[in-house]
Specification:
The structure is a single chain. Helices cover about 40% and strands about 25% of the residues. With about 250 residues, it is of the alpha/beta class. The protein has one domain: Rossmann fold, CATH 3.40.50.300. Bound molecules: adenosine-5'-triphosphate (ATP) and magnesium ion.
C-alpha cells in the first residue's frame, strides 16, 4: 500500500501557549479507513484541521505523497483532502449552486450529468438539484455536504462527527454511504466519531487521541478488543456504558 499522508511529530498550542496537540506521528495509507476516537477536547478536530491545512502546526511536518505541505498549493491540497463537518452549512441557492462552489473556485463548471452523478453517489434524487438547499432536511443537507466535497474529487475524506447531529435512521444511512465510498470507490477516509459503536463497526484502523497525544494506534479490532493503554481501556468502557445504559 502507498503512503498518502505522513504526519511527523506535529505539535500545536493555542494562542495562550497551552498545548492542544503534542508530538503526534502517524501515517495514512491509500485506501485505508481509519476511525479516530478520544475524549471531548482531546484534539481530534484540531488534528483534522492540520491534515487539511486549515491550520499549520507549530512544529513537526506533514507530507502528502512525500511532499511537505508547505511546498504544496494550499487550495489544491484542500481539494485533495476534503473535510466534512458535523453541521452541514448550506449556502444560499439551490443544491446545484452548492455543488458548484468547489469547482467554480478553479474555474470549472459541472455538467448536469456530473451534478446528477454526485447526487446519485450520495443517494439523493436528481430532482432535488433545483431545490433551495436550505429547505432540505438535516440528513439531506449532510448528503449535499458530502457531495459538495466529492465535487472536488478528493483522494482523502476527513469526516468530523458527520453523523452526530442526525437522527438514528439518517445517521445509519450516511454511515452506509461512507462505507460504500470506501469499498466501491476506494476512498481513503479518516473518520472522527464519538459514537464508539460506529467507530468499531466501520474502522479498519483506529487511532486514539487523549490529552493532545496519540496514545494508541492499531487495527480497530485490537484497539476495541484488547486496548493497550489504560486511558483507552477506561475511555472505551465508560463510553460504551453511556451509549448502552443498563436498565434495571
Ligand atoms: N481556535 C482555538 N483556540 C483556542 N483553543 C482551541 C482552539 N481550537 C481548539 N482549542 C482547544 O483545543 C483543545 C482540543 O480541541 P478540539 O476541538 O480539537 O477537540 P476535540 O477532540 O475535537 O473535541 P470534541 O470531541 O468535543 O469535538 C480544547 O481544549 C479546545 O478548547
Ligand atoms: Mg471535535
Amino acid at each position: 500500500m502507498k503512503k498518502l499522508i505522513a504526519i511527523e511529530n506535529v505539535s500545536k498550542a493555542n494562542q495562550q501557549g497551552v498545548p492542544i496537540l503534542n508530538g503526534i506521528s502517524a501515517s495514512v495509507m491509500q485506501g485505508e479507513l481509519i476511525t479516530i476516537i478520544g475524549p471531548s477536547g482531546s484534539g481530534k478536530s484540531t488534528f483534522l484541521s492540520l491534515i487539511n491545512r486549515m491550520t499549520d502546526p507549530d512544529s513537526g511536518t506533514l507530507l502528502f505523497k512525500n511532499t511537505p505541505y508547505i511546498d504544496l498549493d494550499v487550495l489544491e491540497l484542500r481539494r485533495k483532502i476534503g473535510l466534512v463537518f458535523q453541521l452541514p452549512t448550506m449556502l444560499a441557492g439551490t443544491v446545484r449552486d452548492n455543488l458548484m462552489i468547489g469547482p467554480k473556485l478553479v474555474q470549472r463548471e459541472l455538467s448536469e450529468l456530473e451534478i446528477e452523478h454526485l447526487l446519485e453517489q450520495v443517494g439523493l434524487s436528481k430532482s432535488l438539484k433545483d431545490q433551495d438547499a436550505r429547505t432540505l432536511s438535516g440528513g439531506q443537507k449532510q448528503r449535499v455536504s458530502l457531495a459538495r466535497t466529492l465535487a472536488n474529487k478528493p483522494e482523502v475524506l476527513l469526516l468530523d462527527e458527520v453523523t452526530a447531529s442526525l437522527d438514528p435512521n439518517s445517521s445509519e444511512e450516511i454511515e452506509k454511504l461512507i462505507q460504500q465510498l470506501h469499498q466501491q470507490e476506494g476512498k481513503t477516509i479518516l473518520w472522527v466519531s464519538h459514537n464508539l459503536k460506529q467507530a468499531k463497526k466501520v474502522g479498519q484502523t483506529t487511532w486514539v487521541l487523549a490529552g493532545g497525544k496519540m496514545i494508541e494506534q492499531g487495527t480497530t479490532n485490537e484497539v476495541f478488543n484488547s486496548p493497550k493503554h489504560t486511558v483507552t481501556k477506561e475511555f472505551i468502557a465508560t463510553s460504551f456504558e453511556k451509549e448502552e445504559p443498563v436498565i434495571q
